[in-house]
Design a protein that fits this description.
The protein is an alpha/beta fold and 280 residues long. It contains ten helices and eleven strands. The chain folds into two domains: 85 residues, Rossmann fold (3-Layer(aba) Sandwich), CATH 3.40.50.10860; 124 residues, Rossmann fold, CATH 3.40.50.720. β2, α2 and β3 form a beta-alpha-beta unit. The structure holds NADP nicotinamide-adenine-dinucleotide phosphate.
Length: 280
């Protein structure tokens, strides 16, 4: 009981496959990341994306703009990147400074280059089952569940959280895999009675160690998306890992779990975007 789904190993495998594929390409896939301002967490995330892109052999461009950059300037940059043939994927690192309209800027990205899967076009396509670039974190979670060898089809899957970037797309992807899906949120009544029936439980809440052992079904697959700090400032997930793990068949750790897979899926989406744009 309590097998660990190792995000480090899985992510390395995915990146190695991409690297091998890219080696054989005459024109390399290109990823452009836009960072506005000096948010410390964003800096770390953008640095990680740059490192990953270089590792797999992509053309990597980071556009760092000052915190007071005007909205029209950011939009003009996105439009320019939309036009450039050597750029296959565009990502605007969130959150943006308050004076910028995230919704407008994100939706300026060409859906064919929307490697974060955050545009309305991508979200709508995901919902209707059309070909699209799906959000990286939920896609990574699906890969992690599949890596266990447990079949998703017909399983009772419960997602805690309904954000546009994790909870909702996660539920849609599980539905596409033919699970029976329940979405829970802060107004859900008697959450433990629902989560304790889940064969697959995905926690995307943002509350440290929120999911306790009595909320988990014996033998469940538990995916922890949360990235929080505990009372000692240590990184931890939404699941009370130490107490829950023995009850599960498989569980993801934090750190070393979903976060690394999210990064790998961004590389996968960039390669996918390159293929969708018809570049051989
Ligand atoms: P979010 O937008 O704040 O959404 C949190 C969701 O949890 C909401 O739907 C909220 O319900 C629900 N929730 C809050 N308290 C609850 C409670 N007591 N019972 C049941 N549901 C509750 O957060 P997010 O962006 O989805 O992120 C969730 C977590 O994942 C965060 O820790 C974030 O840092 C992490 N994350 C990790 C990655 C990664 O790569 N590993 C990527 C993205 C996010 P309501 O809708 O009713 O408010």
């Amino acid at each position: 009981m309590g097998n660990i789904i190792d995000g480090k190993i899985l992510a390395a495998k995915i990146k190695e496959e991409i690297r091998e594929h890219v080696k054989g390409l005459k024109i390399k896939p290109g990823l452009a990341v836009i960072q506005v301002g000096e948010d410390p967490a964003s800096k770390v995330y953008v640095g990680g994306k740059e490192k990953d892109a270089q590792e797999v052999g992509f053309l990597s461009e980071i556009h760092r703009l000052g915190a007071d950059t005007a909205q029209e300037t950011v939009i003009a940059l996105v439009k320019k990147l939309n036009e450039r043939k050597e750029i296959n994927g565009i990502l605007v690192q969130l959150p943006l400074p308050e004076h910028l309209n995230e919704e407008l800027i994100t939706n300026t990205i060409d859906p064919l280059k929307d490697v974060d899967g955050f545009t309305y076009n991508s979200a709508g396509r995901l919902l209707t089952g059309s070909k699209c670039l799906a959000a990286c974190t939920p896609s990574g979670c699906i890969e992690m569940i599949k890596s266990t060898g447990c079949e998703i089809k017909g399983k009772n899957a419960v997602v805690i959280g309904r954000s546009n970037i994790v909870g909702k797309p996660m539920a849609i992807l599980l539905l596409q895999e033919n699970a029976t899906v329940t979405i829970c949120h802060s107004r859900t009544v008697d959450l433990p009675s629902i989560t304790s029936k889940a064969d697959i439980l995905v926690a995307a809440i943002g509350r440290p160690k929120f999911v306790k052992a009595d909320m988990v079904k014996q033998g469940a697959v538990v995916i922890d998306v949360g990235m929080n700090r505990d009372e000692n400032g240590k990184l931890c997930g939404d699941v009370d890992f130490e107490n829950v793990k023995e009850k599960t068949s498989f569980i993801t750790p934090v750190p070393g779990g979903v976060g690394l897979m999210t990064r790998a899926m961004l590389m996968k989406n960039t390669l996918e975007a390159y293929k969708m744009q018809g570049i051989k």
